[in-house]
Predict the structure of FGGY-family carbohydrate kinase.
Amino acid sequence: MSPEPQPVRDLLIGVDVGTYSSKGVLVTLDGQIVRQHVIPHGISMPRHGHVEQDADGVWWADTAAIIRELLREPGAADRVAGVACSAIGPTLLPLDTQGRPLRPGILYGVDTRAHAQIGALNDEIGADVILAHSGMALTSQAIGPKIRWLREQEPGVWAQAATLISAGSYLTFRLTGQHVMDHHTGAHFMPLYDPRTRAWTDEFAVPVLGSAPLTCLPRLAWSDELAGHVTAQAAAQTGLREGTPVAVGTVDALAEGLSVGVSRPGDLMIMYGSSTFFILVQEAPTPDPRVWSVGGAFAGQVNLAAGMGTTGSLTRWFADEFAREHDTGAAYEELFTQAAALNPGADGLIMLPYFSGERTPINDPHARGVVAGLTLSHRREHLFRAALEAVGYGIRHNIEAFRDLGADVRRVVAVGGGTRGGTWLQIVSDISGEAQEVPAVTVGASFGDAFLAGLAAGVLDRADLDRWVQPGAHVTPDPALAPAYDRLYGLYRDLYTQTRATVHALGAPT
C-alpha cells in the first residue's frame, strides 16, 4: 500500500500591525505576492502624552481578519508552511493569569507618560550605570519606566498582572499560546535586559518591578526561531491549519528592514511611516545615549536603531486639518504637487517636527512643533513643504549622530508610505546628502514577516533574501542644493536650542 502524498506547503503568511493600519501578505516561497489585505485603524490618546491601542479590538481582531481574508481560497490553509507577525514596538501590555489584557497597550516612544519615572530610575540607579549596562539611555522608547509607571499609577491593574509583553509578542501568544519575545524588543525593556548575556537580569529589577518576579517577562528568542504552532483555538479564529509553525517575529521596523534586504553590516533602513525609524546593521555595538543599541533579527546580530516621533503622522495631521475639502489621498496628491514646485527652504520657513515630543537624537518628550519665518505671503503649500523639510533635517540629524559615534553607514535603503511619489525622498536626499535605494517591491513589514515565517518553518534560508528583494529606484542628492540646505540645517538646529525653554514652559501644567 503506497503512502499518502504529503501536502504541498508552498505559501507563507506575514502580518504586521502598525500605528494606523494592519497589513498582511500571502507569499510564495520565492517571494511572489499572491494576495494582500489592509485594515485601517486608529489610536487612542486619553490624555496628553498617553498613546494607546486596544490589544484585542485592534491588534488581534485585525490579525485574525487579515489571515481569514488571505486564506479565502479553498485549500489555501493547507498550503501554508509558516506564519509570522510583527507589530508596533516596543509596547507594554499587561496580561492576567489567563492571558487576557488588563488595559489598552501603551505604545512605543510616541507615548511620553513615563518621564517622571525616567528621572526616578536615573536618580536611583544612575544614568551612567544604565547607559553602561544597557548600551543606551532611558528615553520614551524604554519600557522599564513605563512598567514602573503602571506599578505606581495603576496599582489595581498591577496587582492582577501576571505577564508583561509587547504587541508582537501578544499576537504570537494568541496564535500559539506561548509567551515569547524577540531580542530586539527585549532590549527596550531596559534595564531588565542584559545585552551581554542576552537574558533577563534582576540586577536592577526592584526599581522597575518592585516585588514582582522576572518570570512575569516572556521567554527570549531570535526573530527567525520557532515560537510554537497554531493552536486549535487560533485555527478556529483565523482559518489557519492547526499545527502551522509560527515564528517568534519582531517589531514592525525590524521586519520592514528585512523586507527591503537590510541584513548586512553597513545597511541602514529609513522607514517612512507614521514615525520615521532607523535600523543600521552593525558588526559590533556602539553604545551612545542619543540612540539605541539593540539586537538584530538573527542570532548574534547587532543593530543601532533610532526613531523620530512625528513624521507621517505630521503630514496626515496637516492634510486632515488644512485640506479638509479633499479625502486623504486627494489631499496628499495636491499638497505634494504644490510643495514640489516650491524652492528649497519653503521661501523662508523652518519647522521643527516635534509635534509629539521627539525621540532620537534629542530625546526630549517635552519638545513641541515650531514654525519660524511666517509672513503674510506664505500659503498652505509653504507650510507643507516646511513640514517635509523638517523631517529631512531630522533624518540628517540622526544619520549625523550615527556617524559621530563611529558607526559605518554604507548603504541607505528607504521604505514605507513616505517613499511614494519620490518628492519626499528627493527632499531628504538633498538635505542629508545621502543617496537612497528604493527596492522594486516595498510591501512593508508584512513581507519581512513572511520571510521570517519561512526561516522558522525551515523552508527558507537567509541567502534567499537576495532573490526576494529586487532593485528599484535610486534617489541621489542634487549637489547644487547642498550650500542652501547646509545653511538651513544649521538654522534648524539653532531653532530647537533657542526655543526649547519656551516650548517646555508652554507645555508645563498650569
Residues 357 and 366 are 5 Å apart (CA to CA). The first strand starts at residue 11 and ends at 17.
